[in-house]
Amino acid sequence: MYTQKVMEHFKNPHNMGEIPDADGVGTVGNPVCGDLMTIYIKVKDNHLVDIKFKTYGCGSAIATSSMITDLAMGKTLEEAMKITRGNVADALEGLPPVKMHCSNLAADALHAAIEDYYKKQKAKQEAKQ
Amino acid sequence: MDHAAGKPVDPRVIDAMLPYMRTNYGNPSSLHTCGQEARKALEEARTKIAKLINAEKKETIVFTSGATESNNLAIKGVANRYKDRGNRILTSSVEHMSVVNSCKYMTTRGFEAIFLPVDQYGFLSLDALEKELTDKTVLVTIVYANGEIGTIEPIREISKIVHRKSVFLHVDATAACGQVPIDVKDEGIDLLTISSNDMYGPRGVGALYMKEGIRLEPQLHGGGQERGLRSGTENVVGIVGFAKATEIAKQETEASGKRLIKLRDHFIEGLTKPIPYAFVNGHPTRRLPDNVSVRYSFIEGESMLLSLDLEGVSVSSGSACAAKTLEPSHVLLALGLKHEEAHGSLMFTLGRQSTVEDVNYVIGLMPGIVKRLRAMSPLTPKELNG
Question: Is residue B365 a contact partner of residue A58, using CB atoms and an 8 Å limit?
């Protein structure tokens, strides 16, 4: 049912873990639905210099989380915001149709983390003024 | 470890079936010798199956294409035939989908379907049954033992309550048949569904027992086979295999049940005791000998299923993520489990070939799998990952 690529990322997920002093954190999903993802980011000179994830969910939830960290690592924030759910699924050589919506949340989690970063930056600037 | 989903056909069953594919391929409706030999085999098979469940006579057995058809025939057939008696069908909230959806279908035909609650173990609420059993009730349909959680329902007590009124009791014994002895007379069952593959017979064959005197509205119309209740040329080769499987089950149920119960209890203990936040689903002892249903907090079932599959172990999960729908198993939710608890469920079903080595292999794998997935999960409490 899953592609070999999905299984590789499921078996050996990349960048799993937390960043304690993350610059942005994004959480999407709901344990009631069976999927919950948190993405942590570190930002330097407008680039994503570190990304980590923690995921509760099925095989495809774990694989998409792992894949998004690969796709976004080193990218500018603007480039990362352009990564779509479709890009993640394509990079995994496809997901089963039933999984396309429910567990393909990694792009949303990344975007939420970047938005959190922007919000924190804004708050910092306002505090300075 | 997923025998509820499919069982191998017993080699003795295959041997019994082969002649009916090669040489004795007659149609039981034909009057010539070849046809009459097939008729004889068919009627002998009917006798063997009637004996397994202690039915009063062989004519009470109607052959079908399997448990789904038997359940459909029983529910739609009785409800439609006796609709002048009432329009209420009572069932439980831990039924197989073929019962659930047959009952739901009848609500589009002017019937009312009531899904009675169960307790935390999956036992039917007898109070609710008594309360809902009105004069309008025509049929009560209850599973003998649910295949997902293994809980064996108190059929005798249910029967006593149901038969205080002139209401029929249908019991779906698909998962239970061949595992525990079933006696339709002693237990007061009016209609009973049984299936061949669940007893190591071929797929695509099943039967419906219907007590003498009960009438049904047929669901398949045609040449009038099975006394007009189920048209279509009889699947003689499948039925012969089904009967052989039944015969073997009758001889071996007691011994294999005892062995499996020991193995099951060892398995449940090994899967839950060494791991924190691990629980058994269903009742600890009043459950089918083959059924081991457990759940682990903070992680999701499909990811456990995939991890076990990578180690060569096939299991089922109650999680929505392992199913075609986006809802976790209705059976697990009926026990009062939260969605996230149901998502963390795994169901193992043992078989005749399962050994203590197989079980110990899985017991050895599970702590590592749970630990790895918990380390990944944002729901896991910090102290568990320390």
Answer: no
Are B302 and A58 in contact (CB < 8 Å)? yes
Q: Three-state SS across B333-372?
A: HHCCCCHHHHHCEEEEECCCCCCHHHHHHHHHHHHHHHHH
What ipTM was estimated for this complex?
A: 0.91
Cβ contact, residue pair B340, A13, below 8 Å: no
Q: How is domain B11-249 classified at the CATH fold level?
A: Aspartate Aminotransferase; domain 2 (3.40.640)
- B253-385: CATH topology: Aspartate Aminotransferase, domain 1 (3.90.1150)
Chain centroid offset of residue B18 CA: 27
β-pair partners for B122? none
B74 touches B170 (CB < 8 A): yes
Distance CA B261, CA B291 (A): 9
How far apart CA B335 and CA B281 sit, in angstroms, is 9
pTM of the model: 0.90
Does A10 lie at the interface with B, CB-CB under 8 angstroms?
Answer: yes
Any chain B CB within 8 A of the CB of A70?
no
Quick check: is B321 catalytic? yes
Where do we find the tokens 């999701």?
B300
Q: What is the CATH number of the domain that holds A111?
A: 3.90.1010.10
CA distance B306 to chain A (A): 7
Catalytic residues of A: 33, 102
What one-character DSSP code corresponds to residue B144?
Answer: S
Q: Is the Cβ of A1 closer than 8 Å to some Cβ of chain B?
A: no
| A64 in a structural domain | yes
* Domain span holding position A69: 4-117
Tens of pLDDT, residue by residue over A20-71, are 999 999 999 988 878 899 999 999 999 999 999 999 999 999 999 999 999 9
B contact residues 267-306, partner A, Cβ 8 Å cutoff: 298-300, 302-303, 306
Residues of B in contact with A31 (CB under 8 A): 339-340, 343, 379
**Cβ(B189)–Cβ(B159) under 8 Å?**
yes
